[in-house]
TrEMBL record:
Residues 250-277 form a coiled coil. One of its GO terms (molecular function) is GTP binding. It comes from the Eukaryota. CDD domains: YqeH (cd01855). Residues 194-244 form the G domain. Residues 406-506 form the NOA1/YqeH-like C-terminal domain. This is NOA1 protein. PANTHER family: NITRIC OXIDE-ASSOCIATED PROTEIN 1. Keywords: Coiled coil. The gene is Noa1. It comes from Tricholaema leucomelas.
Amino acid sequence: DPSIPPSGVSCSGCGAELQCCDSEAPGFVPAEKYRTLTDGPTGVTGLQNAVCQRCWLLCHHGQALGLRLPPEQHRMVVSAALRRPLRHGRGPLLLYILDLLELPDPVLPQLQGLMSPDVPAAGLLVVGNKVDLLPADGPGHLGRLRERLAAACAQAGLREFPLVDVRLVSAKTGFGLEGLISRLQRSWKCAGDVYLLGATNSGKSTLFNSLLHSDYCKSRAPDVVNRATVSPWPGTTLNLLKFPIINPTCDRIFRRQERLKEEATKTEDQLSSEERKSLNHLKKQGYLVGEVGRTFQRQKSSTVVEFDPDMLSYSIDEEPKHTPKKHEEREEFTYNEVKDARWCFDTPGIIKENCVLNLLTEKEVKLVLPTHAIIPRTFILKPGMALFLAALGRVDYLKGEKPAWFSVVASNLLPVHITALSNADAVYEKHAGGELLKVPMGGEERMKEFPPLVPQDITLKGIGITEAVADIKLSSAGWVAVTAHEEEELLLRAYTPQGTTLMVREPPLLPYISAIRGARIAHSAAYRTKKPPSLVENLRTTGRR
């Protein structure tokens, strides 16, 4: 209904302004639903707690509506927020969330351009997210990942930002989050606002939701602030979402440490059935699991049951009357609760340029983005063989003296196909868009509009049969770690869709990944897959292996 102006009320899921005048713009609510919510005595405040149609479909049906948005919209929203005048006499802390699978992060070097010289950041804390998806390739693998993360920060050239720390977490399974909260409360306390920044699909909104139900926010905040909408579709968050940060007084920190100490003495056997069920569910999803608890719970008053005694009796001729359900009043913060509050903001993700995800449909994105622990797949290839990762990437082994090992680290739903180099072009022509290569999907019609694969020659020198020399990163589809005999020179040719980034990552992220494999499958280039066990943080082991 173009006659109804925008509401001025934000969607509680993505932050967009709710409106019913343009179905292709952010924040759209169907006009009939919009009038139902606003026709009451409260007017547009009836939209409080409501979500837009896009968030509703993402949450309940996994469907992503296309939006008419300028390409720079997300960047403009983030930059405008970071250029706000100083609050509380100091700049904000930037909590940059980085997808470890995307190292080196393409957006991190752009951070300086989002800031204003008049509003300098007081500090930068970089969080490597999705660590739960990566298998442990040997002892000390978390230390090596942290080193790679610190090196990526150094290479990004962020000299203007005081680097507070780098942390490894899983916003989804909770691993490392209690440590992150303790670090924030020790180093930043409640000195100023905190902004969650990062590229699309880095996990900012998932982290925002986890922090909302933790010791980092005011105890009443989860009753007032809704969870952010989370989706694999890039660019879900469209505007700022926020919750108030709790002031970590000495008493609160002491009580929190006591809770953490008590929980660290528990074993899995001492957890409740619900806690064990949740833990087992998370173990299936990730290699590293943690639990985010709350020390400061708001004591809720007991529910008062109201009824009319006369309504409990009726004659034989009467039908029982049902009283209409009372509208549940939404809780709000009082003025005193937020007048001097410091806020934690979730911001829109910055769109990654030259990323293969930008070429994919909603169904294809769900197959490409890993949501469960990645099981590495290792193959031994001779010169003259080719490896396909779906129809999104290809690696040819052109020249070498000996066989080499190629370990694929990508979504478990993406197929890997090995063929002779002489057949590779024919395989792509015949099966791209079909069931064998799976992504893209849609047959010949889909492939007519999909960019062709373009090659890049790569020369590597092996450093030993136990350690990979480099990763060949096929945009955001995944990567192939190459392990070769010492001093063995390999000539490879790698392909990704035109307009996407192909890079060689040295040193590799998981150098000993080829060791995570089972026995060689007879008459095949493949090894049997092997999934390492999950590790639970903050629980005492029972002594059983």
